[in-house]
Amino acid sequence: MLGKKLVTAQKRGETRALCLGLGMVTCSMMMYFFIGITIVPFYTKSVWTTETVCKVLKANIMDKVVCPNSEATEDEDIFPYPCLQVWVNLTASGQEVLLYQTEDTLERNPKCSYVPDKSENSKEVKARIETIASNFKKYQTFPCYYDPGGTQTSVILSRLYPPKGLLFAFLWPTLMFTGGCLIIVLVKISQYVSVLSAWQ
Question: In this structure, which long-range contacts are made by residues 138-143, counting pairs with CB atoms below 8 Å and at least 24 apart in sequence?
Fold first, then answer.
């Protein structure tokens, strides 16, 4: 009687462990799919792949401009802000080019180096842009990214999805997939050992 209870409990534990392993594998595959349709396209489309050194030539704050967001259809999505233009000397080619914060900044407004998030408090936005401009004037030299193919003459300060960030994004689903497969393998080994012991 006690042996039957132990066998039943063992089967229940194996079933739960097998469901856990299959669930982990399924979740990891869903995460792979999500990363593949969201992060990977942005990474592959980016042409600013080579790192170099940029030297600030001038950082000017122009009059307020309106964010020409092509995706914005409502008036509330369009907001004015001071336009910061940072011109740098590209060490790799010696050209004077306009610096952008990320790839997204160029798409949102090609006239400004920095596009703030939508904010109702215009004073905070102005203070933030002035701080950024003073930091550029203070730190004259810094690493930046440019397009080695020459399709884009501008440079960016940081990539939205650098190679390290892409590897980090794939790290967690890989660990989950490995753990799920390991649980399934251990359950199958346990079942095989149990059947072999019962047969002997």
Answer: 139/56, 140/55, 140/56, 141/53, 141/54, 141/55, 141/56, 142/53, 142/54, 143/51, 143/52, 143/53, 143/54
